[in-house]
Amino acid sequence: MLSKTLSAAAVALAASTLVSAQTFTTCNPLKTSCPADPAFGSQVTCDFTKGKSSSFIEAEGTTLQYNGNGAVFKINSETDAPTIHTGKYIFFGRIDVEVQAAAGQGIVTSAVLQSDDLDEIDWEWVGGDNTQVQTNYFSKGDTSTYDRGAYHPVSNPTGSFHTYSVEWTSQAVNWLIDGAVVRTLTYQAAKGGSTFPQTPMQVKLGTWVAGGKNAPVGTVQWAGGYTDFSKAPFLGYYKSIAITDYAGKDKPANGGVKEYIYGDNTGTYQSIKVVGGDSGSSSSSSGTQYSTLKSTGTGSKTTLATATSTSSNSSSTAAATTTGSPSNSAPSGSSKPTTVKGSGTSRTATAVGSVLLAGAGVLIAQLLL
User: Where is this region: Disordered (predicted)?
Assistant: First the structure.
């Protein structure tokens, strides 16, 4: 297993260089006034074997194909990072995503819940490790410690489909594989709730390259080695996803919810205002923000160096209460900067998706280069 072949130092180094989409936001409501988050308000099911879903927006540079396996996330080169995200948000809820992760040394597949203020809950698969999956969580973009990751055994994740779920309430986060709980984080275990993910979140699905030739050594080690692009394309498949919004409660909402508004700068779930009504088109509000980001680079800019500027300054994160494999206490690379070279140079238009899955850890990566 990858988690057992890496030394503790190597795993820690990898973890310290890997913080992806999770630490990037177009507007952080803890620091400024931001647009309201449009709400799902109920359940949406997307069957990608039938084609594109209107609930998801493709990141710039992302062009997906669809077949009997669902949405095909293809990587041919080091700069590829196909990514889609929802236009609407859930405020507590559940996702059930049917995935066959991309096989390939250094290739990573990820399913992420992320909020505007950088709370997040993650699944992540390393393509060279066909025995397990990683989970992780973050609060307010805090990457000051890397003790939240966990590993969970799963049969043939890069060669077969499994359903990976997150059920997220005000009391706990449960991660499930094929309906069985493999990890639980309680609100109290997250430092009395202070580091518990608790603000409205989008869903982001993607694949990216952690084993690129310019990646920091720690990232390459975590990813299992450098990627051999003579073996491309590397294909990940998302067959379906069910997204259920609890609209601030601990059970499914039944519609009639328009949006979520941060009532102050605390980022607590009690401060979030649930506004009734109809949220309309799934891509209305977030689609507008994303277009602004692409065309002007305002807010959290699309350069790797400035993407870190939206991270929280909070000083610590909590250890989780977990069940599952004995290696759960090991730090995980999940959700940490995808470790593109820490040069601080701007991404090309085709790699905005990579910023969503790579922007945040550049400052840390620079320290390692």
Answer: 278-346
